[in-house]
Design brief:
Strand order of the largest sheet: 6-9-10-3-11-12
Distance between the termini: 40 Å
Structural class: alpha/beta
Order of helices and strands: EEEHEEHEEHHEHEHEHEEHH
CATH topology: Rossmann fold
CATH class: Alpha Beta
CATH architecture: 3-Layer(aba) Sandwich
């Protein structure tokens, strides 16, 4: 089944400062969209605002999945409607095991253990780590692989990745990217990847790349746009946003 994520005129304030100033983006199931831009342009603010972080105040705009307005929903309800955030630095949750976390998120407990083992093998996460408390005593790469296990079990309509390539070695990046590519076909997952680096996009080929500057999308193009950014940087796009 095909789904659509639509962001229209999104304005978001953080600590009294407007960071997103009319953000627009539309994407569909199975697509990979990359968000790129200089530090402070609003990329991570977008991720937190879409998933309902309490420190991000929406001033105006709309975010829908298949016509359902997400901005009026709690973070849990947004996730249940199909939007999941894969964080740059996943939190430790002492006392809570991954099984319990996924069961609370709605996964079927009768098949959950089997599905977790399958996903862990696919992403090459040592199986014994599944029994630890969520992200406790895991390396950065192990945390990202664990996030992919959770993603594979929950199978959201859209996965938002907040700089998931940060801190990953080449092998871990390759494993994570391959799992995400498979997700776009296995259950038609849409992937919205916030990244600074082209290396992720060499493995996870984007349908579209959006350049963000000063809280807005100022340029959109195909995979070739990543080459332009690597060669020329963001300066021309900064001037386009003023």
């Amino acid at each position: 089944m095909s789904s659509t994520l639509k962001i229209e005129g999104l304005r978001v304030e953080v600590a009294g400062t407007e960071v997103l100033k009319g953000f627009d983006l539309t994407m569909h199931s199975g697509e990979v969209h990359a968000i790129m831009g200089p530090n402070g342009s609003g990329k991570s603010t977008l991720a937190h605002a879409l998933t309902g972080h309490p420190g991000y105040r929406v001033l105006e705009g709309s975010v829908t999945i298949d016509g359902v307005e997400l901005l009026t929903l709690s973070p849990t309800e947004r996730a249940r409607h199909g939007l999941v955030l894969v964080m740059q630095q996943p939190f430790e949750i002492p006392g809570v095991r991954t099984f319990d976390l996924l069961a609370a998120a709605g996964a079927d407990p009768t098949t959950l253990r089997e599905r977790m083992l399958e996903e862990a093998r696919r992403i090459e996460l040592p199986l014994e780590l599944l029994d630890r408390f969520v992200n406790v005593d895991l390396s950065g790469g192990e945390r990202k692989r664990s996030e992919m296990v959770q993603l594979g079990v929950l199978r959201p309509k859209f996965a938002m990745l907040d700089e998931i390539d940060s801190g990953l070695d080449v092998d871990a990046l390759d494993a994570v990217a391959k799992r995400l590519v498979a997700a776009t076909t296995e259950w038609n997952c849409g992937v919205l990847a916030i990244t600074h680096f082209r290396r992720l996009l060499l493995e996870l080929t984007p349908t579209m790349i959006h350049v963000v500057s000063d809280g807005r999308v100022v340029a959109t193009g195909g995979p070739e746009l990543a080459e332009v950014l690597e060669r020329d940087g963001y300066e021309v796009f900064r001037s386009a946003s003023t």
